[in-house]
Amino acid sequence: RDFNECCAQCSEVNWGLTDGGRFYCRSCHNVTERTREVVNTDFILNTRIQTISKGLRKQKKNDGGCEWYVCEGFQLILKKQAEALEALGVCPQMKDEILCNFWRCYLQKSQQAYCNRPAVETAKALPVWDSSTDVESEPERSSLLHLLSLSESEGDLQTDCSFASSTSKVSESTSVCSGSVDGHLYLMKNQKEKLRMTMPMTLSFCYMALLWLREPMTLSDLLRFVVEGHIPYLNVFQHFPEKMKLCGLDLKIFCVESWPVYEEVYNKMLELAAFLDLPRFPDITDSCFLHPDMLCMKYLMEANLPDELHNWTCRVVKKICIGDADFLTLVPGNKSKRKVKYDVLAAAVIVVVLKLLFLLDDHYEWLLSDFAEERNKNNKEGGPYFEFKKWYTVIKCCLDVEQKRLDEERAKYLWRCEKPLFYSAKKKSRVLKRRQMVVNLQNQFGKLSGSVQPAEKPNPSSFQLSWSEENTDGSCFHGQSLKGILQEKCGVLTAVNPDYWLCTVKLCTEKLCGHLAHYREVDFPQSYHFVLRLFSFLLRIQPSYIHEEVCVIEHKLFNKKLCKKPKYSTVLRK
Amino acid sequence: SSCEHKLNFKKSKEVCLSYIQDAMLQKQWKRAAEFLTFYVESLEKDFSRQDVNPSEMIWRIGAEILWHHSHGSVKEFNSFIEQMKILSVKRYLKVCLEHVFHLLCHGLIDEAYQTLSLAESWRFGEQTAVQDKEIKLIQAYRGLLDYYSWSKKKNILLEYGECQDGFDDLSVEQEMHSCFRKAAVNLKEIIKVPGVWDLFVKCYVDLLEFYGAHNEARQVLNEYAYNSKFPANPNAHVYLYEFLKRHGESKKSLISALKILHDIVPSHELMIDFNTMLQKSKKRKNRRLGLEVIFAALDYAGWKENVKAWSCLARQVKQIVISEKHLDWIKQEWNSRKDWWPAFHFSRYLAKRNWQKNESLSYEKALVAGILLGKECKYFKYVSHQGCKAQMKRFRVLKKFVNKHSLVYLRISG
């Protein structure tokens, strides 16, 4: 933009930017060596960029709005989300480099921008880049790699979010039933092959970027922060600039009416990674937060279980080789490999370890607990032995309280915001009146209820439950010892419990029913259900997901035994 | 509590509503108000597919909470209800009516009247059948309030009429007549519609009677009582009976009015009057009916200790026994009761209790028991013994009487 020199070849001043960040002359397609460094990360209304020849973006008639495209809206949203993540402690690279580049790559692939013929309705679109060989000579993949590499590059990382979309001629086709120019297009069915952008997908983008950077935030953490309001998602359109008016079909695109669902966000992320032709993600090694050894430690702490259990989780992880970088790292597009949900996996490992040590068949764990209690009486030196019964009492109480609080929060969840939405200008006054009435009623009954409006959100925290060893009431079990339920055999500490029961003898075919295992509470012991419920609460997902993962782990763990014995046997000797 | 971690708008509001309902059932008004603040945004959905949409919910719940909440004042309620009126055009009239009820409950008659007048003049689009009905109702209540004004003015006139000079008399009287006209028009209209309009009918009849339009009044009451389109309503017959009695109508018409009442509500308090009237009748069938009526009334627990009722029965039984005619009447009535009346009315426990609390009651009952069950029955024995011990003359007479007719019970029980 600041580049006003005459082109060396044709002496015109008509510059555009290549993907590589170099200026090129649009008249004669001469690519210069000049690159552009931009620091400005604000969303810039497309009034300034590359409009020397085109003139300003058309203002809409009455309401002071301007033309805008749906993807611009999403771009704004992603930016807001990235900023929020940064505020939560995620490194700035996520916003400035990774997410931004993922996004631009997406735009290019889905032909919404940075490409030959952006997928907008008008046939008269002048291509921004025409068949210049300079630009397209680089294979897309390598340029993308170039962009995505974490190493410093020659300042070609652009962060201004401008759009080299097609010409102003598009304005004639502006639909009346959406504030955005291409709102109606967006909802047309044939967009499916190009992976149409949706609100949940913004979270997929975020998670993908987090995963690329191996940030210490799991998908369940991310979604929880969204629901708690720390990451813009619901009503994020409030932050659109005044000039970007939303109405009509835009509502269907940007208006969120439900909490994001783990499976949906996760699967979309996989689809997205494949769509963008991303290479193998950076390796998840055992020093990463997402590695099962690390996550298990975190969850054990949160679940108020003894630290000593970590040894066991590590053993299981090692035994079934789920700690390998090859297993854990995401390779997009590789359909044969089962994708890893780190949080679910770690939780499932813990469940399996609990089953190994306590059996959890509604009998044995209580007997074992009494046994440990007995041993505890004679235990003078060292810390107390872990007793399942005590742990259960404390955790059940806590879980019930938290679940109740969560249920009330669900009931009190507010979906609407100050900025009202309406389908058309005709409905605007009605919507505004309604909004006013709602606010009045809220005030009136709020006063009656005597409660102060809860204005502050709770501080975001990675740990939902915390237990302190300083509590003298003995409600913290971290430091307790497992000796009460272990015995020495051949110099090695093994579990007293000799048995194990498999959740399922045979795994389902995922292709047929979508899952590898199914869960019905009544079919399983209550202790098992309790443990599932605990992690279901921490991760905010259905118990059946954890159960499924448990089944998979068990089948890996007892693979040999399962293969050997063709006979049906639900109780195994370890 | 559940392991549900999914949530959408609709479900979220459903859950919220269930919390409100729980709180209301437990009369925790503050808590209900709290959750209602989170529920009201459901008004902002553009459409609702549910049968009862949020706006109606909010109206009803909000009104209930405000009514019960200790801090809810009339002003608060007014401001709330005005918003509810705006919310739904279809419900405007209903909401107005509710508003009026609340004002009346707070004793704000004038404000209620104003609200009714305002509502009456409201029209929206084409008059639908439902709106018609609701407008009628509004007019009827206005008519009722007009009646109330009329009644006040009438009392003023009656009390102070003589003391005041001509002018004041006249103006009050004129106002009174104007109230009458307004009231009469509306009340007349509403009672044409099949339904239960007890209060309206009473007021209208009162007006008509005052102005001497007795025939019309009778017609109105007859319609109200006998028109099959109207739901069966014991009060209608009571009103008719009272009217007929007031105007000295024939016994025949009185009896026919009460007969229906007996059929509908055998335990009605007027049954005593009815029995008394029937006993005196010359017609045999009336006297027969009288016995039936009094037995039927005493089948009900509420009458167990009613001295008048027992004395009616005793009198009639005594009379039959003395005349030695129509013992079969008693037999017929006793037939269906002999299995359970003894335990119900004539147990030894009751004998003691009745004697202690109300000796006239025990006297009457003892007579009936002695005849129906014989002199050896527990009730009679105990009461007559006590009575004779206390040297009460009538108990000695009673004892003699029952002894004399001691075999009647055998003939009755068959």
Overview of the structural elements:
Chain A has helices at 70-87, 93-109, 133-136, 140-148, 183-186, 199-212, 219-228, 250-254, 262-275, 292-302, 309-319, 325-328, 342-358, 364-378, 388-411, 425-449, 510-513, 526-539, 543-557, 559-564; strands at 15-17, 22-25, 31-35, 486-489, 492-495, 499-501, 571-573. Chain A has 574 residues and is mainly α. In chain A, α1 runs antiparallel to α2 (93-109). The radius of gyration of chain A is 28 Å and the shape is globular. Chain B is mainly α and 414 residues long. Chain B has a domain at 126-227. Chain B has helices at 9-25, 29-39, 54-68, 74-87, 92-105, 109-120, 129-160, 166-190, 198-210, 214-226, 234-246, 251-264, 271-280, 284-297, 307-323, 327-335, 341-345, 348-357, 359-373, 378-389, 393-404, 408-413. In chain B, α15 (307-323) runs parallel beside α19 (359-373). The N and C termini of chain B lie far apart (67 Å). The chains are: A mainly alpha (574), B mainly alpha (414).
Instruction: List low-pLDDT spans of chain B.
Output: none
Strand order of the largest sheet of chain A: 1-2-3
Fraction of residues in helix of chain B: over 70%
The helix-and-strand class of chain B reads: mainly alpha
Oligomer: heterodimer
Q: Quote the average pLDDT of chain B.
A: 88
Helix segment count of chain A? 20
Quick one: biggest sheet of chain B? Answer: none
The shape of chain A, in one word, is globular
Global structural class of chain A: mainly alpha
Instruction: Work out the largest interface and the residue count of each chain.
Output: A-B, 43 and 42 residues
Amount of beta strand of chain A: under 5%
